[in-house]
Prior knowledge:
The structure is a homodimer.
Chain A: E1 6-11, H1 29-42, E2 49-54, E3 66-69, E4 73-75, H2 83-92
Parallel strand pairs in A: 1-2
Antiparallel strand pairs in A: 1-3, 3-4
Helix pairs in contact in A: 1-2
Amino acid sequence: MAKFQRHVFVCTNERGPDDPRGSCTARGSAEVLEALRAQAHAAGLKRVVRVNKAGCLDQCAHGAALVVYPEAVWYGGVTPEDVGELVQAHLVGGRPVARLVIPDEELTGKVPDPKATP
Amino acid sequence: MAKFQRHVFVCTNERGPDDPRGSCTARGSAEVLEALRAQAHAAGLKRVVRVNKAGCLDQCAHGAALVVYPEAVWYGGVTPEDVGELVQAHLVGGRPVARLVIPDEELTGKVPDPKATP
């Protein structure tokens, strides 16, 4: 046994219908998750690639959002119709789908402060 | 803005009390998750390291289980008492805590089949 070759986390955060931020679930992430699981399995990736739901990935402006590790490729605005291309190009072929990638400068992470105590 | 420096996923899968596999939640993963969030934040890692809950990570024999990406270090049998060391050594210092790491040969991933259609 071994590490997964790739590990996909789909944001399945939910918010109330009046929340102005919306949520990935409101933008269809549950359907994206199910399509990813089914199509990754159909592509022979069982135990090679794992697809998990995750709590809020903090990319709410880009829902439905997901991330593929270990390469740390972030995708936004993903719909179930995109999943076939994601599976074949990226999960099988190793080539990220550029049109769906969230640019680094739009992600919410922060570069570590070099002055911070290590 | 940028990618997170590290992204931690804690298995928060739940199973019924009669399920022989147990679950990470039954082994205290919710408390591990909360301790990780609080202590990562206290260490100044807000938006540098993100800590998320995840669905079943398929390492049920090693609960409470979590994984740190992008380095893909898997931890098992983690308790809230381990969290201080995990945060300081790994999330701040970049040095995995060897005593808690799940060995590759005990993980449930599968090396890709080289004969599979690319």
